[in-house]
Design goal:
Number of helices: 1
CATH architecture: 6 Propeller
CATH class: Mainly Beta
Strand content: 35-45%
Shape: globular
Number of domains: 1
Oligomer: single chain
Helix content: under 10%
CATH topology: Neuraminidase
Number of strands: 16
Radius of gyration: 23 Å
Structural class: mainly beta
Amino acid sequence: MQLSLIFLLALFFAACSTMEARPPTASILIDLDPGSADRTVIVESITADKQGRLYLPDRVTGSILRVDPKAPKPEVVGRIESREIQGKKVNADPSGVAFNHQGDLFIAVGPFSEVVRIRGGDLDPQKPGVAQTFATGTSGANGIVFDRSGNLFISGGGSGIIYRVGPDGGASRGSN
């Protein structure tokens, strides 16, 4: 009995040593910018709602795209309008994106030093919602996350600052 167990273990380890380790591969769900070398769509952040639909802020247009993985066709459900800051037109260049517990979508907007919000009910492809200011004083805002209490934490990019904003929004409280 011990001899056959040793033999089986030897066969198992011999088989394992001949197997090539293959790295996992990713498949493409959708190409948001097919056939273009001009980078007309730039997406660097992604989140999902409770139904599993994906939300992506386009850094070029300020549009919020929604993609259903079951039928991957992008649709614009929101937008962040450009602003005039110190006499210059500034595009939103949105980055980090997250949902709160109520289903509202929040987007970090570094050039505005803000986090903006689109109410969940306004994420509509027929009439895309327009983002409104939620948090201010977040210089370089790029990554965002909520804690269990509804506080919003915002990374300040290259500054090394992490900002905190309460569930009702307003001015940030930074720490580094």
